[in-house]
Structure formats: structure tokens, C-alpha cells
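FIELD: query
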Amino acid sequence: MSVVSAFLVPGSPLPYQRPDNPPWSRLAAAYRAVGRALISSRPDTIIIYSTQWVTVLDELWQTRARLSGTHVDANWYEYGDLDYSIQIDQELANACIEGSRRINVSTKPVDYDEFPIDTGTIVANGLMNSKGSTPLVIAANNMYHSWDETYQLGVVAAEEADKMGRRVAILGVGGLSGTIFRDDIDIREDGIASPSDDDWNKRMLKLLESGDAAQARDLTPEYAKQARVDMGFKHFGWIMGALGGRFHGARIHAYGAVYGSGAAVVEFKF
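FIELD: result
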């Protein structure tokens, strides 16, 4: 199997930019821990699907050889700039484009200087691939794609990597419950916005931890509805597709809040 490791990680920049803040410090430490696990799995390429790279027309894949610059998050700009330097596995990215077209997904490459890179991708790359030594393949989140369609894109990514003999790490970048505090808070007292959201998050994480992939998949629509989950939990669909719909369990390295919304750092076992 070409997939050597798989992780679900939050895309919020807050643990990245303020790891000193107690509610976010555990998430930041867990992010660094799974970064070490990723490195230990010795991938040739990291394949990322981030809920924050939102498209509305086609499925897009980055094909520019190198991407670098400074990004300012549209919501959390006051916490500082995000510098990035990313190399792209062009060969695998182009193979994923062709694979997506074969399953009748309207797909295009992105090969432009200074094309905007989303916060989630920058955060995941910065914390898990800090030296930038491993190239990426970056897939967009088409907001009109269903969970099942995103699952199929994960299948395509893993299959194309397998055809090329690539060892790949799969990253699904996104959050859990989606309700954030609308008013200013003391960030030292951050917590999940509601007990209901907290209960739903823990219910899903328990299923992931147990390895009950079928029940986790079945629960996803109701979970997404009740907890307003980030993009319908499509980033989990991406991971499931890449893993062939099966995993044996998961290690929950950390679970917590980022300005009221739910976030978890999860390492899948398969």
C-alpha cells in the first residue's frame, strides 16, 4: 500500500501562532508530535486536502513547482503573518488530475505565481513539514462536492500514488464542531462553544479511536448537521477514501477548542 501514514489535523492558525496560550498549547504540541510520526513514516510526498482552500467551479490541484510567500489570514490577521515555502510533486499532482478526470470530476491544474495558498495548508505544512524537505500534492475543497465525492478523490490520490510507487502521507486538514465565539473572549479561557458540540465531537472521536470506520461514516451526516462540522467533515471523507474505507483505530493526540470551535489532532492506524 502506498499510504504510509494518515492524519486529521486542524487548519486554524491559532495553535500555530500562539502555542503559548494554554488552551491551544496541547494542540500545538500534538501537531508537532504527529509531525514526528509523519517523518518516521518516511513518505516521498505529503498529499493534503484542506477545507480552507475553497473552490466553486472545478476541482483544483496545485502544479507549480515551488510556492512561497506571506499569507495573512482573513479572520485571524491580528495574530500575525504566515510565511510559507512549499515544493510540489508535479508528477503526482498531474497524475491525480488525470485520475480525477477519469471519474468524471471537472478538474484543472493551478500553475501560477503568487496564487493564494490557504491557511490550513500553510499551518499543516509548517508544523508537520517544517523544513520543507518533503514535497506536497495539494487538492482543493470544492464546496459543492459531497462527502462521497470527496471520498472518491481520496481514492484517486492513493491509487495514483500506488501506480507511481510513491510512499505518501495523507493529511485531512479541517476542524470538528464549527461554532465559534462571535465576540471577543479571553483566549486563556477558550473552550468548546456548547456542551452539545462537545458531546458530538467526543462521540465521533470515540468511534475513530475504536476503529469503527463504518459507524463513523454512518454518523457523519448527523454529526455534521448537529455540530455544524467544518465543511461537513469532508476532510474525514478524503482520509477514508485514501485508506480504502478502513482503518484499525486512531490515536487522539489532542482535542480542544480554537475560539469555540472543535479541533483534534488524530493519527490513524491501518
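FIELD: remark
The mean pLDDT is 97.
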